[in-house]
Structure formats: structure tokens, C-alpha cells
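Q: I'm writing a short explainer about Ribosome-recycling factor, chloroplastic for a general audience and would like to include a description of its predicted shape. Could you first generate the structure from this sequence?
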Amino acid sequence: MATPFSSTTSLRPVFQPKQIPPPKALLSIRDYNAGLNCVKCGSTTMHLSSWKSASNYFRIRRHALMLPTQPFPSGNLSKYRRGVIRAATIEEIEAEKALIEKDVRARMEKTIDTVRSSFNSIRTGRANPAMLDKIEVEYYGSPVGLKSIAQISTPDASSLLIQPYDKSSLKLIEKAIVNSNLGMTPNNDGDVIRLTLPQLTSERRKELSKVVAKQAEEGKVAVRNIRRDALKAYDKLEKEKKLSEDNVKDLSSDLQKLTDDYMKKIDVIYKQKEKELLKV
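A: Of course. Here's the predicted structure. Afterward I'll give you a sentence or two in plain language.
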């Protein structure tokens, strides 16, 4: 016989556990709307665990990615987005390295040109128009290079001929030559200026040789400074994880070889100039 129903019988509801969905993949863009995009394919559903790059370097722009602990409210979700993770490719790293190397070579070549120009401005036993390269003339209130306002030639091995494009500048050119301490007296005949190179004494040759040696050393210091700047640039790439320590060592070794080559170039032109000065 069934037990009769009693109003005092206590009824306990049966507990039904809530169905919890399986956890979603970590940093799934569609799941979390974190704003992570694949740079190469543009996909917005790629998981971080499958995201690969040509290098081990990652850069986070704007903000770090943050996972929400609460469901997103309805409405505009843009404020919950945190930025883009981007990987530097091998091509980008190689481009930065090539840019540094190009700058180093260009600056070192310019240093060689500067040293050679300084040497040419120092007179030897033979006349050379380059001896007047550093002379500037106050022309209409502005300093201008002598070569820009006059034609310079060498009629013989011991004299220079200066023919100005504007004859009214003859006096100004003459004054500039006197103030330049070249050791030459200008001869102004109203049309042109002639300069005769006096014979260099033995003492004067030795003095000029010391000047050339100093200019050569200044050129070498400039080359070393260029090398230092390039090393700093490589160190910066290493700190940014674009280059490994071994990469930097290899690049530093190549840079030292390039520096040594330009040091030798300075030595060559210095010895040539010294030979010209000491030759009687």
C-alpha cells in the first residue's frame, strides 16, 4: 500500500549542476576580442600558440594584451581592445643592418675626402689650385669660396693665376689671400692676380709635415667615432631582441675590418703628402 501524501512531508529540490562550457583556447581573438591580428595573413582568429614569426622578436604597441575576467557588456567594445603584437621579420632586421652599414661607409668616405682636401690645401714645392681651396672672400657681405668667383690656373710649376669673373672683386681677393697666411704675396695688375710660390726651407717643410700628421690623426679619430656610433646602433638592436649576441659579435668583427681598411687609406695618403713635403 502506498504511503499517503502528507502536507508536512519536506520536499528537497534536486540540484541540477549548471553546464559549464569547456574552456576556450587562450588568446583566441574571436573569443576575447583582444585585437590580435596576424601581420602576414590578416586573420583575427589565430591563437597565440600557433602564431609564428621569422624571428624570436615581438613588439607590443600601445598596450599589453589583457584578458577580461568578466563578460563584455553590450555596446561599443573598442575600449576593451589593447593593441597589436607584431613580429619583426628577417627582411626588416636585414634592412636595418644594411642601413647602418651604408651610413658607416658613407661617413668614412666623407672623412677620407676631408683629410685629402686638408692635405691639398697645404702647399708643397709645386703649385696646385687646391692650395686655395680654403680661402674665403667677403663678397657682397657674405663669405664665399675663392673658386666660386674666380678661375684658378697654374701657368707653371711655381705660380698660380687667379682671374676673377667680376673685376671689382680683385681687391677683395687680394685681401683674403694676404690674410690667409699662405706665405705668398699677391701681384694684382688690375686684371688678374699672380701668386709665386717661394722655395720652402727645410724647417718650413718639417713644420708642415707636423701639420699633416696632425690632420691625419684627426681623420683617424673621426673614423673611430663612426665605428663607435655603429656599435651603439648594434647594441640597441640587441636590446630590442632583433639581434642575438652572436650576431652582434659577427657584425662588430666586420665593422672592425672596415675601420682598419679606412685607417690604412688615411695612412697611404698621409705618406704620399709627407713625401711631397720633404722632397726638395
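A: For your explainer, you could say: Residues 1-11, 23-41, 43-69 have pLDDT under 50 and may be disordered.
Q: Perfect, that's easy to follow.
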